[in-house]
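Subject: design request, 211 residues
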């Protein structure tokens, strides 16, 4: 079994200390951090996701796998966001109200920080006005909202509406993403940008701040 397969397997079992240990070991072996992320951690989460969908595992198993994923990401983060990059601007980031999924959001944060963007992470279950108020308070040019549920992606429209209502729609670029979100959905709610994954989100944000 390769170190990536082992990592994926321990992640699926929710064994956070083992996942952390293997991520450290892989980094020491000189493995590419992106490969560790994709072939180890995300591969494990993909298996859990498929099993969850088929009712082969349930919320508690998914939760402990998610904790193991976040534990592995903690070790991997410095390697992913390497380099002493100068801050080029600020972004407000959060998962929308009603939604507690934060693994993708955390990945977006790491990738944005890797591009020299200061990220103000509001966490999960964030109400629309909190996104916009944070943008105003911190003079941030980007509001980045994540949603993983079809039942919460509609809150992204409320974020756009709040920006209008609070008079800052022309001052903030609103970027949306997350598994159920699409380019068409972004257009339908009047947001500015959509990114399918964390690395693209970082490219988009970098483009906005350096335009
Ligand atoms: Co949830 N869950 N979950 N869950 N969960 C999904 C999303 C689901 C698809 C599973 C399924 O049924 N197949 C399903 C949603 C169905 C739907 O709406 N269509 C679902 C459900 C139903 C639920 C509950 C309702 C289950 C229940 O209680 N009955 C419940 C809801 C709780 C709530 O939020 N209110 C729930 C709970 C949970 C846990 C708490 C157990 C756990 C979350 C733990 C945590 O995040 N700390 C969990 C998990 C882990 C998942 C799955 C298995 C994995 C999600 C994940 O982390 N993927 C997920 C199934 C799946 O996705 N296959 C599922 C890895 C992550 C890296 O990917 O977040 O997509 P993702 O991020 C990607 C891109 O989307 C993108 O970048 C990342 C990759 O680079 N991206 C952005 C994300 N945000 C972005 C923002 C951007 C740009 C890109 O710009 C701003």
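Subject: RE: design request

Done. Sequence follows.
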């Amino acid at each position: 079994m390769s170190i990536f397969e082992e990592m994926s397997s321990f992640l699926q079992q929710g064994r956070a200390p083992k996942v952390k240990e293997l991520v450290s070991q892989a980094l020491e072996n000189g493995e590419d951090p992106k490969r560790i992320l994709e072939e180890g951690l995300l591969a494990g989460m993909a298996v859990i996701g498929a099993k969850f969908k088929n009712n082969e595992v349930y919320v508690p198993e998914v939760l402990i796998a998610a904790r193991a994923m976040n534990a592995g990401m903690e070790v991997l983060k410095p390697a992913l966001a390497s380099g002493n990059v100068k801050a080029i601007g600020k972004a407000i980031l959060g998962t929308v109200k009603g939604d507690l999924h934060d693994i993708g959001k955390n990945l977006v944060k790491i990738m944005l920080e890797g591009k020299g963007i200061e990220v103000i992470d509001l966490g999960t279950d964030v109400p629309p006005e909190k996104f916009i108020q944070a943008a105003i308070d911190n003079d941030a040019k980007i509001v980045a909202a994540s949603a993983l549920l079809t039942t919460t992606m509609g809150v992204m429209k409320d974020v756009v509406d709040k920006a209008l209502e609070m008079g800052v729609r022309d001052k903030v670029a609103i970027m949306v993403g997350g598994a159920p979100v699409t380019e068409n959905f972004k257009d339908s709610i009047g947001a500015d940008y959509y990114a399918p994954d964390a690395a693209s989100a970082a490219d988009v944000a970098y483009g906005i701040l350096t335009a």
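The first strand starts at residue 89 and ends at 95.
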